[in-house]
Structure formats: C-alpha cells, structure tokens
Amino acid sequence: MHLIAHELTGADDWPIVPATPRRDWMDATPSRFAYRCLPLTMANHAGWMVLCPASFIATWDGTEGAPHNMDIAFAPGEERHAMLISSHFGSGILTFALPWLFRTEPGIGLLARGMPNQPKPGAFALEGFVETDWSPFSFTMNWQLLEPHRPVVFEKGEPICFIQPFDPGLLSGRSPEIRSLHSDPQLFEEFEAWRKGRKAFNEDTERSARWQKHYHTGQTVEGRKVPTHLTAFKVQPFERDLPTLPPSGETEVQG
C-alpha cells in the first residue's frame, strides 16, 4: 500500500510517527490488566500519529459562530504556530491545519480522528474521512471544546491527529444480515463452549490473577488455532525521500 505525506510549509514541526499501544490510564490499572484486552491495544496502534508542534492553552468564551471567540495562548516563542492553529470555524472548534498533503492509492482514503482510547479533558476530537486517493487539497484536524471558559491544555509532542487508511468499498454495497446463531451449528457449539467456560471462570473466587486467553492467543475453547490471528500491527515509520524545496506561501485551511 502506498501512503505518501507531501510536506507543506512548516511540516518539520509536525512529526508523523507510528502510533503506540500504550496508554497512561491503562498503565495505571491494577497489574496493568487493561492490556489483557487485545482489541483495545490493537486499536491503540492501528495507524499513525501527527504530533502537536507547540504547547498552548485554548479557552472558548461560549459564543457561537464568530471565529474570534477562542483565546489561544501559546508558550513563549511558539506564537508562530498561530497561522496553523486557530479557531477557524468558530463555535468552540479548535482547528489544526495539518501541513501535510496525503496521497493514497486508488480506492483508499484516510480516516482522521483522535487517538483511540485516549480521552482528553475538556475537548473532543472530531473525525473525518478524506478521499486522499485523488484530492490535491490539505485537510484540517478539528477539536470541539466542550465547556465555555474551561482552559484546555495541549502539550508540544502530544498526538493531535490519528490517521488510518480505510477502504470505503468495505461499506458500500454490502448487504448485512441478522441471523439466528442456531443457523450455524458449528459456531453455536463453539460459542456455547466459550460461554460456559467464561461463566465458570467468573464464578471461581479462587481464580486470583489468572485470566482466560482464548482470544488473546487466537484459539477456540477446543484449542483450534487461528492462523490469521494478530496480536500487533507492524506500523512502519514514514521514510524520507530526496529533499524538496518548500512551497511558497502558507498552508491554506481547507474544511
């Protein structure tokens, strides 16, 4: 799969790095038990992170519409980032004009979203799907500040956008169905074996720190291994091509 990030003005301050499966709140759970949930850790690192170029505090005054209803106080010496970090749309929306123009292969676009399973106090990351297989435009990453007059801190180096390739053909033209589980006797038998085993495990007061690992190890209750099972994604860093001259002008904010 081809995924290319073309540099626009100021891109050096906005690193793109492989996402990490780690989360501070998961580290803080007793015995780090949250990492036993493989679907969580897989979602955590199924893409790339665009990192914030500056530290600042954003405060929305609560009014709608006007783009000047948000105060963005940058750390000393980092005011230059005000061109790409602003309340461009107003209404409490904080906009990051990403200085990258992404291209993907035909039929593949990018989901741009907040970090999976990483809440941020006072702000919510808005998601978008971009047809990067043809679009010659940059796009923005937007956050909604949730409460008027509540300062929201963004730190330099924290992820502010999570990008993930997506094939819209996986949705279009599909015909989802609802069926009785009994319509698939083998699946019903395997589910019942798992359900009974999980019930007995949960009722065992002596289980202590033990935990069942059927899904984590990719095998059924009967021990049948699933050859396609994954426990991690091999997300590669972006490789730099030959140096290119920066384009003239500043990045234009696109909706």
Please give the largest β-sheet. Answer: 5 strands, antiparallel
Q: Compute the number of structural domains.
A: 2
Give the terminus-to-terminus CA distance: 26 Å
- Contiguous low-pLDDT stretches (5 residues minimum) are 245-253
Shape: globular
Can you give the helix content as a percent range?
10-25%
Radius of gyration from CA coordinates: 22 Å
Spatial strand arrangement across the major sheet: 2-3-14-9-11
Helix tally equals 4
CATH class of the largest domain: Mainly Beta
Annotated CATH topology of the largest domain: Deoxyuridine 5'-Triphosphate Nucleotidohydrolase, Chain A
The CATH homologous superfamily name of the largest domain equals Deoxyuridine triphosphatase (dUTPase)
| Estimated share of beta-strand residues | 15-25%
Spell the H/E element sequence.
EEHHEEEEEEEEEEEEHH
The count of strands amounts to 14
User: Architecture of the largest domain, CATH level 2?
Assistant: Distorted Sandwich
Question: What structural class is derived from the secondary structure elements?
Answer: alpha+beta
Mean pLDDT level: 90
